[in-house]
Amino acid sequence: MLLLERDRLTSGTTWHAAGLMATFGSTSQTSTELRRYTWDLYSRLEAETGQATGLKQCGLIELATEPGRLEEYRRTTVFNRHCGVEVHEISPREVAEMWPLAKTDDVLAGFYIPADGRVNPVDVTMALAKGARMRGVTVIEGVPVTGFLRERGTVTGVRTTHGDVEAEYVVNCAGMWARQLGELAGVSIPLQAAEHYYLLTEPIEGVDGSLPVLEDPGSYGYYREEGGGLMLGLFEPVCAPWRVDGIPPDFSFGELPPDWDRMGPYLEKTMSRVPVTEQIGIRKFFCGPESFTPDLLPIVGEAPELRNYFVAAGLNSIGILTGGGIGRTVAQWIIDGTPDVDVTGINIDRLHPYQANPQYRATRTVESLGLVFAAHYPNRPTRTARGARLSPIHARLEAQRACFRDVSGWEGADWYAPPGVDPDPGELSWGRPHWFDYWAAEHHATRNGVILMDMSFMAKFGVQGRDAGRELERISANQVAAEPGRITYTQWLNERGTLEADLTVTKLDDEQFFVVASDTAHRHAETWMRRNFGDSHAFVTDVTSGYAQINVQGPRSRELLAAVTSTDMSNEAFPFRTARYIDVGYARVLCIRITYLGELGYELHIPAEQAVAVYDRLVEAGEPLGLRHAGLKALASLRMEKAYRDYGHDIDNTDSVLEAGLGFAVALDKPGGFIGREAVLAQKAKGPLTRRLVQFLLADPEPLLFHVETVSRNGQVAGYLRSASYGFTLGGAVGLAMIDADEPITQKYLDAAQWTVQIGAESYPATASLRPLYDPSSKRVQL
Ligand SMILES: Cc1cc2nc3c(=O)[nH]c(=O)nc-3n(C[C@H](O)[C@H](O)[C@H](O)COP(=O)(O)OP(=O)(O)OC[C@H]3O[C@@H](n4cnc5c(N)ncnc54)[C@H](O)[C@@H]3O)c2cc1C
User: Fold this and answer.
1) How confident is the model at residue 412 (pLDDT cuts 50, 70, 90)?
2) Element (H, E) at 230
3) Cβ–Cβ contacts within 10 Å for residue 562, how many?
4) Which of 30, 146, 452, 727 could staple 641 via S-S, CB 3.0–4.6 A?
5) pLDDT digits (tens, 9 = 90+) for 539-582
6) Phi and psi at residue 15, to the nearest 5°
7) How far is the CA of 9 from the centre of ligand 1 (A)?
8) Residue 565 in contact with residue 580, Cβ under 8 Å?
9) pLDDT digits over 246-288, tens only?
10) Whose CA is closest to atom 2 on ligand 1?
11) Ligand 1 center to residue 25 CA distance, Å?
12) What pTM does this model have?
């Protein structure tokens, strides 16, 4: 194994990192695991290599000074404890005792993590390099990679200033240069450097290395000891991208001139938390670049554009405290072929090439660094780089007062305001939003009448060719290529039997198929097909931009469609799972009878240039039927009542299809089998499952559930809600959790226990169910 470094190790961003090591604060299991593994690795390094790391377990205190943040930290505390992090809520007085220099009069609470602390990033890097060398890795400094060798879609090596090097795998971990380096291989890595600041004071009496790290996001700052004085680090809410045009290739151990004018007001606020810093001398005001990504999550994994080309970059100011875990994940992924942690949120293939455009990076990065210390309310809208992708009927939805949110870059209608009401998301809060009742009305209209929902952001692919059916059968766990004019819900599995995708395949005719996946799975699904189809006569075309998708759903949806088409829409002529071209005005529309909301319903795939006309026709014909527009909030509440899964939210690449409760969609006996079949059989042979996805409904109609609330069985934590919403028909908040048990999980097992869901300090009784609580026998879908 070879590590090539352009200049000297740490010469990019690492040399000036503050070295904070926080395991608290993430509501992602993967991120928390990456942090914990990193801690564990760094704490072993000195003994293993003899190289000091500067690791100090001095503890970390996180301050909550606003009610919303207090609520957030209380909820996060419960989840983080479940992930193995020791967290104590402490009073302002206890904060003052542990951190006498801090002003605490406005502090609501502190959250103390005794095992957190800090390291010296340069020493850690040297220890990692030494450990790697001891295990046979060659580390060469002063040799930049200048290009890549490739053969038939696979990377085969790198070009360097000293000649070519063959390699079976290449990992681009070039920090803020990763995007430019990726371009040389045709790989899009949309990250961008931004200015990042800290300030060092002269020595202060009473400050020494035992002082816990203090973070006060409300003041944009963190504080730790440095040289007997303090380091004050900043995460300002509006930040500044650096060198959108490209990072200079010779930028080493570099500093940027601080922008005092821009930073002045933020700095004042940061200093006011520790008033002594307003009097003491400043030794240094430091500004250095760090790279940020469009969604503040790292860019990890195999590039969709090039096989065996891995990326580990875009670390969003937590590269020291997650670096060890990310390294482990990439190594394991390369060795085993599939990752062993949920990578749906960090996988490079969630991102799109347009996000690497200069305008996108320049615009989005203004927001990203500030989000690190923002209070993480549910429903926080993204403010920057909006309007990047518009549905063909966007203007019509705007006229209907849609409140839009960013859906993989698309403007997705989240909910609709009634006439006279501004479609504004309003104040961020953990309580019921001002649009709660509008959301409820859209939900009920779907259950009782008919709604129209724009889903044009869904990923759509045409799959054609003599082998298209055979190849789709090979990668699909369900039987997808039997009858033409039929849609099939299926999962794609890897050899381990865990989930790669969850989508629908529609057979149009023997050589033509239509594959629809969710927006977040767009590139993953496409890459999975391309890589698995190999040289066969099966060809994938991304037709997402060519079709608008309008879903017409609800018990009166048949009436509505019958009013706009001459096609016979009766249940006999057009049963559930039928796909057929229908006429609507001048348009030929692919109409598929399927639902993700749990009612009679249809998906209309309309040529983009005819979408407005079809939409107008639907709205006109829908008026006498009471047609409503419904948004993505309604989609979430409706599908959650029906316990329909959402890949990347409640199911992911670590779940087997059986654990996910999707065994009904697996055609184990279909001719020719499918990828992952042996793993499914092996799991079946082991007997009843002790890990299963379970639906939970709170008995109390008041509380709201969002994500990661823990679920307990007879007082013992058994899992956490991977996603949740409000069930307006069921009459309470509802969510899905993966439950682990030491005995088979059956409905009897669930019924025999008291189940509760923990929201911050409160615990709420809940019903647990393996079958969907709404319409378990799917009668309404078949109407
Ligand atoms: C002010 C500040 C404070 C921070 N504080 C913290 C903190 O407290 N905790 C924390 O976890 N994180 C912190 N960070 C973030 C952390 O420093 C980064 O996330 C981390 O250093 C990124 O590591 P990296 O290896 O991805 O990038 P880098 O350290 O930049 O490493 C990339 C390397 O790739 C090399 N390279 C580039 N191009 C080529 C090429 N063509 N060929 C060969 N080599 C190449 C570069 O020379 C460089 O050495 C902070 C960042 C800043 C700016």
Assistant:
1) very high
2) strand 229-234
3) 15
4) 727
5) 999 999 999 999 999 999 999 999 999 999 999 999 999 999 99
6) -60, -25
7) 10
8) no
9) 999 999 999 999 998 999 999 999 999 999 999 999 999 999 9
10) 17
11) 22
12) 0.97
Name the band, by pLDDT with cuts 50, 70 and 90, for residue 783.
confident
**CA 136 – ligand 1 centroid, Å:** 24
Rounded CA-CA distance 497/655 in Å is: 8
Contacts of 771 (CB under 8 A, 6+ apart): 643, 747
User: Using CA atoms, how far apart are residues 222 and 476, in angstroms rounded to an integer?
Assistant: 49
Ligand 1 pocket (Cβ < 6 Å) reads 4-7, 11-14, 16-20, 144-145, 173-177, 181, 196, 198, 233, 288, 290, 313, 315, 317-321
CA distance 97 to 100: 6
Q: Which amino acid is at 739?
A: I
Backbone φ, ψ for residue 59 (5° rounding): 90, 165
- Give the chain's largest Cα–Cα span: 85
Reported for 275-283, long-range contacts at CB under 8 A and 24+ positions apart, including other chains, are 275/101, 275/103, 276/101, 276/204, 277/199, 277/201, 277/230, 277/232, 280/201, 280/202, 280/204, 280/229, 281/201, 281/202, 282/199, 282/200, 282/201, 282/202, 283/200, 283/201, 283/202, 283/227, 283/229
Nearest CA to ligand 1 atom 21: 14
Closest by CA position to 655, among listed 408, 340, 223, 359: 340
Distance CA 96, CA 105 (A): 9
Atom number in ligand 1 closest to CA 146: 41
Looking up tokens 């518009």 gives 390
Residues 6+ apart with CB under 8 A from 418: 401, 438
Atom of ligand 1 nearest to the CA of 322: 11
The tokens of 731 are what?
């009459």
Would you mind telling me the total number of residues written for the chain in this entry? 783
CA–CA distance, 607 with 549 (Å, rounded to integer)? 9
